[in-house]
Amino acid sequence: MRPPGNGAARLLSGAGLAAALLLPTALPAQAAPPSRVPAADGKKGQELPGMPSALDPEAEEVVCTPASRETAKKQDWSRQRLDLDRLHQHSTGAGVTVALIGTGVAPGAAGLKGRVTADGDAADDCVGSGTFLAGLIAGTGGDSPRLAGVAPEAKILALRGTDRRGAASADLVVDALRAATEARAEVIAVAVALPRQDAALSSAVAEARRAGAVVVAAATPDPPPSRGGSDEIPPRTYWPAGEPGVLSVADMLPGGVRPDGSLPTDGVDLAAPGAGVVSGGPRGKGHYLGGGVPVATAYAAGAVAAVRAAHPDDSPEDVVRRLTATAYPADIPQLDAYAAVTSVLGEPAAAARDKHGAEPVTVRDTAATDRATGRATLFVLLGSAAVLAVLWAGFALSRARARGWRPAGAAGTTSD
C-alpha cells in the first residue's frame, strides 16, 4: 500500500517541473544560429531545391539550373523580419528602376513579366541567381503574393557582371555600371564582389554616384574563394563595396549573426537576411531556397528602391543615411526596411550627409513590449507560486486526515 502522501508529492514535483518549463517562455530569448539552412516556412519538413550563385567552373559542359517543381507553402522568415506586408502599405517602389548586375534576369520569369529590361546576354540567366535576386527586389510573387519582393512595383534593368557560369568579371562589372548610369537607374545593385580595385572600376562607381544613383554592393564574394591549404583567410576589402559612398551589405542568419565560415571583411554598412530565403527562378513557376551575400544585397537594394519611391526628394546620401540610421543596432546594423521608409529623420544638415554622422532618428519604441514581457514574467511567477501553495495545502490536509487531525507530534500517542 502506498503512503498517503506519495500522490501529492508527485503532484508537487510535477507542478515544479511545469513552472520551470513555463517560465522561460515569458522571458526574451536569444535565437541560436541554425545548424542548417532553415526551411521556407521556418520549420523542418518543407523542402525546396537550392539556388546556386554560380555553376561548377570545371565542368566540361554548362548545365543550367533546372526548373523547380516545388512551391513554398508559407511566407519565409526573411519577409517577416523585414515587415514587408506593412512596408507595402507605404511604398512598393513604383517609378524606380533598379539595375541588377549579376548573372542576368529572365524577362518572362513569374512575378517579373513586363518589368524587366534585359538585352543580349543579360536575358540569358543560366545560373538562375540573377532572376532569383530580381524576385527579391521587385517580384510580385506571382501566384504567391506573400512571397513578393521588397519593391514589387519597381522595374529591373538586368546587366551581366559574370560569365554564363556565374564567375565575376571586372570588365563586365565596369561595363554594367556605365550602362546603368547611362540608363539613369536610381539604384544599382552589384551582386558580385571583386578581389581587386582598379581605376576603371573606381571611375565607373564615381560616375554612377554623380549621376544620382545609390550603389549597393555585396561585401564579399559568393561563393567564397577556395581557402587552399589555409584554414583562415585574413580580413580584406572587396570591390566595389569598398568604394566611397557605396552601401556595403553582408548576409545574416535568422538569429542575427553571420553564417559560419563567412569571409572576414571591414567596413560593412548593413546586414540583411541571407539564409533560407525563397524566390523564383528563370524557368517554371516553382520556388527555390537561396542564401548568401547576393541575397542580402538584393534585399538592401529593394529597400533602397522603396525609400526612393516614398521620399523622391531625398539625395542619394540621405537615402543611405535612412537605411543605416534606422537599422537595428548590432555589431553590423541589421536592415529594417519598414523603418527606413516610415521613420522621421532629423532636419537635414551638412554633417548628416556623412555616413558616420547620422542625425537622431525616430525608431520603434520597444518600451511597451519590454513592460509586457515583465508583466508576463511576473504573472507566470505568481501563478506558479499559487499552484505550489494550493498543492502544498492539499498535501498538508491529506497528511492531517491520515493522523486523525492530531498534531504531528502526537501521531504515535494513545489515550488512557
UniProtKB/TrEMBL annotation:
Residues 30-60 are annotated as: Disordered. One of its GO terms (molecular function) is serine-type endopeptidase activity. PROSITE patterns: SUBTILASE. It comes from the Bacteria. The keyword Cell inner membrane does not apply. Keywords: Hydrolase, Membrane, Protease, Serine protease, Signal, Transmembrane, Transmembrane helix. Residues 1-31 form the signal peptide. One of its GO terms (biological process) is proteolysis. InterPro entries: Peptidase_S8/S53_dom, Peptidase_S8/S53_dom_sf, Peptidase_S8_subtilisin-like, Peptidase_S8_subtilisin-rel. Residues 93-333 form the Peptidase S8/S53 domain. The chain crosses the membrane at residues 376-397. Belongs to the peptidase S8 family. PANTHER family: CEREVISIN-RELATED, PEPTIDASE S8. This is Peptidase S8 and S53 subtilisin kexin sedolisin. The lineage of its organism: Bacteria, Bacillati, Actinomycetota, Actinomycetes, Kitasatosporales.
